[in-house]
Amino acid sequence: MYRSLDLLMAIGLVQKVITLGAYMACPDSSGRSTAGLLVCTCCRAVERLPDPGLAATCAAPAGFLVERVMLEASGLCPRCH
Questions:
Q1: Contacting residues for 48 by C-beta, under 8 A, at least 6 apart
Q2: In whole angstroms, what is the distance from residue 72 CA to residue 50 CA?
Q3: Short-list 78, 74, 12, CA closest to 37
Q4: Could you tell me the pTM of the whole model?
Q5: Domains within the chain, CATH numbers bracketed
Q6: How far apart are alpha carbons 30 and 11 in whole angstroms?
Q7: Are the CB atoms for 47 and 77 separated by under 8 Å?
Q8: What is the pLDDT of residues 14-26, one digit of tens each?
């Protein structure tokens, strides 16, 4: 099963939600990454943050090439606060 999940992650169909210890389907198969996830600690809802290129912009002066961004912020969604 984990090999299948690794393959689905590699081709951009599934994304791991580390905070929840779960996986979620990506909305499209473009393989585009997100800047991160917002995870509600109450209802476990997950919202994607669009990738604004912030990581690449911050890394460029150091000559660092960003391949993947893994950011998860935990808190309360609008329904839970």
A1: 27, 34, 36, 37, 38
A2: 13
A3: 74
A4: 0.71
A5: 2-75 (3.30.1490.190)
A6: 9
A7: yes
A8: 888 999 999 988 8
